[in-house]
TrEMBL record:
Keywords: DNA-binding, Phosphoprotein, Transcription, Transcription regulation. CDD domains: LuxR_C_like (cd06170), REC_NarL-like (cd17535). The modification 4-aspartylphosphate is found at D54. GO terms for cellular component: cytoplasm. Gene3D superfamilies: 3.40.50.2300. This is Response regulator transcription factor.
Length: 208
């Protein structure tokens, strides 16, 4: 079970999210916070694996506390779930090391997909979020570079996700997935997904 701290200043939102999260066998809500100060206090005490927090709550903003939380709890993933998509907030979240940024109107299954991907080590922001750009690229031992998005898709290919499943997990269209898959095949010099998987594992681009 993945231990999760849930933060929102509305009890009804916390109850709904808790029901979604605990409907699976993956997540367990070990604490709840109704404001930013309580979030920081409980995070430091409980040391959750994931923090799922509203953006705008009374007290200290998650945007002001995320860098320190990342410093104090380097293994904890932070996901913001919000109704606001202002660019300034998004950039601050990105610069602060927030791992995921999703909207409150996101369907429950996609919220769970986001948590699953972040748990695996990826950073996921919804398409409407205009990020400054990828923080890093993946480089294998033969010097081939992949963007962060290509690395995400490559890893999901290894895990036997179909193009449709990848699109749903990453909030992108199937056509966009196909474009990235074509780029992966071109960069690896392979003819199909199976060959690319073997190549990627051998060269260290992806994990098994």
């Amino acid at each position: 079970m993945v231990n999760l701290l849930l933060a929102d200043d509305h009890q009804i939102i916390r109850d709904g999210l808790k029901m979604i999260l605990e409907s699976t066998d993956t997540y367990k809500v070990i604490g709840e916070a109704a404001n930013g100060n309580e979030l920081v206090e409980k995070a430091l005490h409980l040391k959750p694996e994931i923090i799922l927090s509203d953006l705008k709550m009374p007290g200290t903003s998650i945007l002001d506390s995320c860098k320190q939380l990342k410093k104090d709890l380097p293994d904890t993933k932070i996901i913001i779930l919000t109704a606001f998509d202002e660019s300034e907030d998004i950039y601050r979240a990105w610069d602060g090391g927030v791992d995921g940024y999703i909207m409150k109107d996101t369907p429950p299954e996609q919220i769970l997909n986001t948590l699953n991907m972040v748990k695996m080590g990826y950073s996921l922001y919804q398409p409407k979020v205009d990020k400054k750009g990828p923080r890093q690229t993946s480089k294998g031992d033969d010097g081939v570079n992949f963007t962060e998005r290509e690395t995400q898709i490559f890893q999901l290919i290894v895990e036997n996700y179909s193009n449709i499943e990848i699109a749903e997990a990453l909030f992108i269209s199937e056509a966009t997935v196909k474009t990235h898959v074509s780029s992966i095949l071109r960069k690896t010099g392979q003819q199909n997904r199976s060959q690319a998987v073997l190549y990627g594992i051998k060269k260290g681009f992806v994990n098994v």
